[in-house]
Every structure is written in structure tokens, then in C-alpha cells.
Amino acid sequence: MNTQILNANRITLLLCLIPFLQVAGHAQGGWSGFPDMPQPAGFIANQVLNNKIYLAGGLNTQLNATTNFSVFDPADSSWNTLAALPQTKTGASMVALDGKLYLIGGLSNLSGTTLSSVHVYDPATNLWSARSNMSIARSYFGACVLSGKIYVVGGGTSTSSEGLTSVEIYDPATNVWTTGPSLPAPRGGLSCTVAGSKIYAFGGTPDVSLPATSSVWIFDPSTSSWTSGADMPTPRLLHATADDGGWIYALGGSTFGYPGSKMAILERYNPEYNNWQSLSPMPTPRHGLALLSLQHKLYAIGGIEDEFGLPVTSASIEVYDPSVFTVEPQAKGNGQIRSVWPNPAKEKVIFNLSVLEAGFIRADIYNTDGRFVTSETFGFYPAGDIDLTMKTGLLSNGVYPTRLFLNNRPFGTVMIMVQ
User: Fold this and answer.
1) Which of 17, 206, 283, 314 is deepest in the core (most CB within 10 A)?
2) Phi (first) and psi of residue 394, to 5 degrees
């Protein structure tokens, strides 16, 4: 290639990078603001149904539990008030099943009685009706749906500082609760999320007098047992988790109970490879928040913030777009990108890497607007010097910021030009 063509390509590369650099330099990365909730609230039961977000109960600005029930449509930012809850609730959980919403457990007030009650809401009639109570009253627990049944996991009670190991399973066809396999240890203030055909339980604390844990437990219904997954990088309780695009996101929370500290840390877990990745923190630290995945965006809603050192309920709604390229701290000490060639590329590009630990390597490819394009998974490699070939023939001509990951930790970023 002659010098004039090479210089022209370099100039084109720099010009194409200008929009990307503006995106990548943004402090909050994939986070964006959204109009606040009509009223602040924390520890709200929450769920997505028919592309709308339903919010139930929680604490108001006076830190009292409410019977508030509303639906939020992100498509037009509209809020509608629905039929009030049958009783005041905070620290409850809500799941969606067969087009209806099940509101389970919680507290009658911040220092009130732990509840075992279960109510189901029908959007078609805007009415609540009672269902069989749980065997054990609980609050600040995990709840999720697997294979048409509702699982409630761990939590706490108003009669003991220790968390529960109890797991109960509800069959809506029979309106009966049965006992499920217990957690490996007591946990209150945990969260649970379904990915694939398994339940994942994250964090929490064994006792309100103890700090948060980083534990991850995985329930496999085929063996009816719990096993341990890779610990969260950040111990947390009273946090929120949500599944999107095969990842499980863990956001916010506290290191030590209520009112406790409030964190903004966002991490995501890859169930396939059983490892974690750190992402851009949310703008507003909080615990007791809702995190909901809707149309491949994550909505962080409400919770408890700090104001002059005191806990206050939050009206904040912040939205995280996982497809937006964000600037994250690069992994230190695990290797380097030594070269990338040919660049510009046509059919393929070869990464020459020096890695100091064995692990799974992948490349995420973005356009110059910072939008995710595709991902290339290379598989597992031992430590050492390696060459990895990535096909580029299906990419349109242009510049592609490409981020490399080792064991789901950012390893380095390079710019690839495809001609």
C-alpha cells in the first residue's frame, strides 16, 4: 500500500472515531435520565407485564408502607393509578404468571408484622383476589417463576434477626404451597432471577447484625438441589437483579442492612461461563430499588437514597442500555494486546495477545455511535502468547471499536477498519 493511501486511511479512521470518542468519554456510559416517578417510593414490589411496569406498595416519603399500585408505560412515560392493594405492604415481591400478577409476603410497615399473604391481580378486571398464604411469613426475599410455578426463596421475619433458609413453591393450578429444597445457609435481603431453566439467588445476609455476602446459589430443578456459583465481585443486600440478553444484572444495594450504605455499582453475571463483569455505575446510589428489563433496557426505579446522611425515598428513574459502548476500568495484570493485523482488514483480522491467566476470550464489536453490533466468542485458552482470528467479511465497510474480554473482564480495546 502506498503512503498516500495509508495516510488517507488513517485520516478516515480518525474522522470516523470522533462520534465514538464522544460517546466513550461520557462519564455515565450506558446510563440516561428519565422523568421521575410521580411520588418517591422505596422497597416497591415490581414486575413487567405486557411491556408495562407495575409497582406495588413500598415506603412513602414518611417511610410508611402504602397500598399504592400503579402502572408505568415507558413508551409514552405515562403513569396510571390502579386498584389499591388489599393491605399495606413493603418489602414484598411480585411475579407475573399467565397474564396475572402475584403479590407475595412483605411487611405491614417498616417495623410491622411480617406477612404470609398472597394476592393476585387481574389486569383485565383491575381487581385483587386472595390466594393461599405461604407457610412461612417473610419479607425482603427472592421470588421468581420457573416452569409455571412460583418459588419464594429465603427472606427475613419480624420474630428473628436471622435470615431464612426456607424455599416454598406455589402451584397456581391447585392453589397449594409446598416445601422446596432449602438454601445452603440463611439469607435475608437477597434477590433471585431465572435464567434458562435454573434459579439464581444473589447476595443477602445470614443475619441483620451481619454484613452483606457475595454468595451466588444456583437451583437446578432436574436435581432439585442448590449449588454454588462464582461469587459476586461486590457483596450486597437489598439490591436488585434482572435478566436481559442472557446476562443477569446486579445493581445497587447496601453493604450492611437498613438504613446502611447505598451503592451505585452495576455488575453482570454470565450463567454460561459462571463469571462476572463490572459495568458503569448508575448515577444515583441507592438500595431497596426496583430493576426491570424491558425491550433490552434496564429501568432502575425508586429506592432509598441519602440526603444529609439520612435515608429518604427516591423518585429517580435511570435507564441503562447494555448495547451502548461504555468506558470501564481495564483488567490489570492479565495481559495485553500486542498487535492487530491486517488493519485495515477485509475478510479477517488477527489479534496477537499475551495473557497471564487461562480463560474464556471474546470480542464485542461496536459501531462508531457506540452501539453494539455483534460478538465473537473464541473459547477457552491457556495463559501465554496466542493468535486469535476474527472474521470480518460480514461487516460493512467502516470503523469498529472492538473490546476484548478475558473471563468477562475488559482486557483492552482496539479500533478495526474494515474495507
Assistant:
1) 314
2) -90, -5
Q: What gap in Å lies between CA 302 and CA 313, rounded to an integer?
A: 7
Whose CA is closest to 98, among 120, 73, 119?
120
**Is 2 a residue whose pLDDT tops 70?**
no
How confident is the model over 238-258, as a mean pLDDT? 91
Average pLDDT for residues 46-64, to the nearest whole number?
A: 97
* C-alpha cell belonging to residue 167: 424455599
CA–CA dist 155, 201 (Å, integer): 11
- Neighbouring C-beta atoms of residue 105, cutoff 10 Å: 27
| H, E, C per residue of the chain | CCHHHHHHHHHHHHHHHHHHHHHHCCCCCCEEEECCCCCCCECCEEEEECCEEEEECCECCCCCEECCEEEEECCCCEEEECCCCCCCEECCEEEEECCEEEEECCECCCCCCECCCEEEEECCCCEEEEECCCCCCCECCEEEEECCEEEEECCEECCECECECCEEEEECCCCEEEECCCCCCCEECCEEEEECCEEEEECCECECCCCCCCCEEEEECCCCEEEECCCCCCCCECCEEEEECCEEEEECCECCCCCCCCCCCEEEEECCCCEEEEECCCCCCCECCEEEEECCEEEEECCEEEECCEEEECCCEEEECCCECCCCCCCCCCEEEEEEECCCECCEEEEEEEECCCEEEEEEEECCCCEEEEEEEEEEECCEEEEEEEECCCCCCEEEEEEEEECCEEEEEEEEEEC
Nearest Cα to 90, choosing from 70, 67, 72? 67
The set of residues, in sequence order, having a beta carbon less than 8 Å from that of 234 and lying 6+ positions away, is 214, 250, 263, 265, 267
Residue of 411, 348, 400 whose CA lies nearest to 373: 400
Mean pLDDT to the nearest integer, 115-120: 98
What is the distance between the alpha carbons of residues 72 and 54, in angstroms, rounded to a whole number?
6
pLDDT value, residue 209: 92
Please say if the pLDDT value at position 26 is more than 60. Answer: no
List C-alpha distances in Å: 319 to 2, 72, 113, 130, 323: 47, 14, 34, 34, 12
How far is 356 from 23, CA to CA, in rounded Å? 31
- Give the CA dihedral 248, 249, 252, 257, nearest 10 degrees: 0
The number of beta carbons lying within 10 Å of the beta carbon of residue 193 is 22
Phi-psi region of 74 (alpha: psi -120 to 50; beta: other; left: phi over 0): alpha
